[in-house]
Automatic annotation (TrEMBL):
Species annotation: Achromobacter spanius
One MF term in the entry's GO annotations: acryloyl-CoA reductase (NADPH) activity
InterPro entries in UniProt: Acrylyl-CoA_reductase_AcuI (IPR014188), ADH-like_C (IPR013149), ADH-like_N (IPR013154), ER (IPR020843), GroES-like_sf (IPR011032), NAD(P)-bd_dom_sf (IPR036291), Zn-ADH-like_protein (IPR051397)
Record-annotated Enoyl reductase (ER) domain positions: 13-323
SMART domains: PKS_ER (SM00829)
Taxonomic classification: Bacteria, Pseudomonadati, Pseudomonadota, Betaproteobacteria, Burkholderiales
Domain of life: Bacteria
Protein name: Oxidoreductase
Amino acid sequence: MFNGILIEKDEQGYRASVQALTQADLPQGDVLVKVDYSTLNYKDALAITGKGPIVRSFPMVPGIDFAGVVEQSEHADFTPGQRVILNGWGVGEQHWGGLAQYARVKADWLIHAPDGMSNRHAMAIGTAGYTAMLCVIALEKAGIRPDAGDVVVTGANGGVGSFAIAILHKLGYRVVAATGRPDESGYLSRLGASEIIDRATLSAPGKPLQKERWAAGIDSVGSHTLANLCASIKADGAVAACGMAQGLDLPASVAPFILRGVSLLGINSVTRPRSERIHAWNRLATDLPTAIIDSISRDITLGDAMQTAQDLMAGKVQGRVVVDVNQ
C-alpha cells in the first residue's frame, strides 16, 4: 500500500483526495519508480480543483512531473537504484502522475537526474524551470546575446518567470520583469531583475506595431500580453512563448514579424526528444544557482496539496512548491 492523490469523477461529482493505493492499481509501463518528490504546477492546480479540463480519464493521479529512484525496470536504459526525472508526456492528465509515492511509466519518458542535482532540487525546478531553460536555449539559438539589449519576462512572479529571470541574470542578460504584483518587486530584484514594470502596460489591447523596447522576451501569458510583447521587440529580436495564462488567443498582426523580422518561438515542453531534455537539465545543473532554487521554493506534504492548489488558482502562491510525497 502507498498514498497518492486520486481524482475521481462520477455521479457524486468531481473530487480529489489522498487515498491508499496499491501497485496493482498503477497503469502499465516498463519502469516502476519510487517517487521522492513531485511539485505543484498550474496544470496540477487546474486538475486538483477541477477548474480546467486537464484530466482526460478517471480515476487519475495528478502531478505532471516527479523525481525518484528506479525500483523495477524492464528497460535496458534504467536499472534499480538510479535517480530519474520525468516531465510532461501527458502524465497527470492521461497517465497516472507524480503526486503519489509510486509511479509506473514508459522508460522513454524518463531521463537520468544530472550529477550533483538532488531529487528535491530537481522538483524545486520542475517543469517550470525546465520550460524556462527551454525558452532561454531557444533565444540563444535565435542569436539573442546579452549585448543585444534587455529581455522582458512576463508572468514574472510565477514559476517559469522566476526561473527565467534567474537563468538570464546568471548568463549576463539585463532582465525586465513584468508583474501584476508590484509589491513583490524585492523578490524579483533578488532573482536578478534590473527593472520591473506593471503587467497592465502589456495586458490591454495595443497597437500592432509599437516602440522598440526590448531585444527579446519570454512569455507565459499569451493573448494581448504576447501580442504587445511582439509589437515592442526590436528588429531581429525574438519572443519565446510557453504559456497561456491570459488566454489562448493572439490578437496580433503580422507587422512585427514582417517589418522588423521578429521571431515568435513556440516552446513545447511536453514532448521534447530525450536529447533536448537531457541538454536542458544539464544546463539547469550549471546555469541555475542552488541558492536561487532554495530561495524560491518551499516544501509541503501530500495532504497539503489540495489547499495549496486552491491558493495557486487564487494567485496566492509565490515561487515554487515542492511536494514531499512521503510526508
